[in-house]
Amino acid sequence: MTEPRPIKIYNTLSGKKEVFTPITPGHIGMYVCGPTVYSDVHLGNCRTFCSFDTIYRYLMHIGYLVRYVRNITDVGHLTDDGEDRMAKGAKVAQLEPMEVAQRYTVGFHDMMRIFNTLPPSIEPRATGHIPEQIAMVQQILDNGLAYERNGSVYFDVPKFAAENEGVYGAVSGRILDDLYSETRELKNQGDKKHPADFAIWMKARPEDLMVWESPWSVGFPGWHLECSAMSTKYLGKTFDIHGGGNDLKFPHHENEVAQNHGACGCHPAHYWVHTNMLLLNGKKMSKSDGNTISPVELFTGNSPHTSKAYSPMAVRFFMLMAHYRSTLDITDDGLMAAEKGFNKLMETHRILQALPVDARDFDGSETDHDRKILALIDEVFAGMDDDFNTAISIAALNELGSFVHKIANQQMSSSDVSPWVLARMKTIFDAFLLEIFGLQDESNARQDIGTVDGLMALILDIRAQAREQKDWAISDKIRDSLSAVGITVKDGKDGVRWSNA
Fold first, then answer.
1. Which DSSP helix (H) or strand (E) runs through 234?
2. d(CA 498, CA 482)
3. Residue 128 — φ and ψ, nearest 5°?
4. pLDDT tens digits, 88-146
5. Helix, strand, coil percent content, the chain, rounded in steps of 5
6. Total-model pTM
7. CA pair distance 443, 46, nearest whole angstrom
């Protein structure tokens, strides 16, 4: 087996770029925190999952065998007032909690297909791993780093911190006193020894809907516990990469680290990778002040923040134009520029693939133009090798594109670029645009069919939810917006049908 090319990864744990060294040569275990399926996936989640999809694709392209695990959170994620998000979603929609989970899991998968992300190797659900979570709680208790009070079990953070100096706080980069001060006081956690202690098993209240038997009480696992249990089951006590959004550093990832140490006696991951946040017109997204936009609103253009609709591939390209660790500001001008850039690169790709070439015609010589092209190809790889910097790789591809257009327009003669170098350019454009960046040529109607069907399934599902909740204004708005772009929606006894006008 050929050794994969060396790469550097920014490790949140150390706060610097490090040369990546896998635990097992040629193999990578990667865990990414997935969605909590109590509502539609938001655009910030989409950026995170598209970023890790690109990372996953590149690692496989350079020769690694990757086991990519991304969970589904369908229990135990509490709101600020102590209510289970799944139960809250079920009450609002007047459904069983698992109906809510199934609906939004399907919607999440639809959105990931629309963005052309690859499915993970394993996608475990929290509700399918209750025995593993109970066993981890028991192990933490046995190791003396948790305590039981009135049927709930709490992780003893001060004791853990004292016995493992420098561990708690390393992921978020904050000192212990700051973390203590940021700890939320949740309902039914009045039995904690210290405000920083967090529940790893919670005794059910009469109003809780998703509950299981345990040695301590009828209840449910803490939100942080599921990722520790599932990553350990599928990737081992220690694995290569743990990923997620910046918002998960504290408390989720800090508490994961504590739990893994508490149960297994070791740190779960060698490299922690975090994506940055999205802004909208320079401000943090907020539903309360109307500064928000959903993926569907981007695709339909039905938003006061955009002047037109943008295709899923244009939006994915917009995300790729920024490094995953940088803040990304969504603006109409930025989206327009990304759309133009995407169309230009895909047109370059089509022109390049149509150029005739016989790569067998190779006498070992290189022209000056050959050397410039090969240097740019090196830059394409160098961008991704340097902490998956897609922006650098795209810039190098655009420079390569200038050679493509000169060849196509006969501004360069056939002797200026060797056939094998032209063949190499074809391979690189195919590999990066389609295989690594996950972009699709939207000029090909056959490739669009799946995207359109997925989009319509998602839009009609949102409309169905609005109708169930008797929100006729939203239902009618969706129907009228689709009609405005030539799509007719008809409600009948056999369900909802749509067609292009």
1. helix 223-235
2. 10
3. -90, 5
4. 666 666 677 788 889 899 999 999 999 999 999 999 999 999 999 999 999 999 999 99
5. 50, 15, 35
6. 0.87
7. 24
Cβ count within 10 A of residue 207: 9
Among 465, 457, 464, CA closest to 487: 457
Q: Measured in whole angstroms, how far is the alpha carbon of residue 221 from the centre of its chain?
A: 24
C-alpha torsion 409→411→414→419, nearest 10: -70
Q: Distance between CA atoms of 243 and 184, rounded to whole angstroms?
A: 23
Place of tokens 């659900």: 125
**Vertex 26, ends 397 and 61: CA angle to 5°?**
25
Q: Which of 153, 171, 129 is nearest to 258 (CA)?
A: 171
Q: How far apart, in whole angstroms, are the C-alpha atoms of residue 67 and residue 23?
A: 13
Residues 338 and 319: their CA atoms lie apart, in Å, by 9
* pLDDT of amino acid 188: 44
Type of residue at 184 = R
Task: List C-alpha distances in Å: 192 to 6, 251, 285, 469.
Answer: 47, 16, 34, 39
**AA letter at 229:** A
Residue labelled with tokens 């065998």: 65
Distance of CA 230 to the CA centre of its chain: 18
CA–CA dist 231, 245 (Å, integer) = 17
Q: What is the pLDDT of residues 423-474, one digit of tens each?
A: 999 999 999 999 999 999 987 644 445 566 667 777 887 888 777 777 787 7
Chain centroid to Cα 299, Å, comes to 19
pLDDT at 493: 55
| pLDDT value at residue 490 | 72
CA-to-CA distance for 315 and 308, rounded, in angstroms? 12
Those residues of the chain that have pLDDT short of 50 are: 79-80, 185-188, 445-448, 501
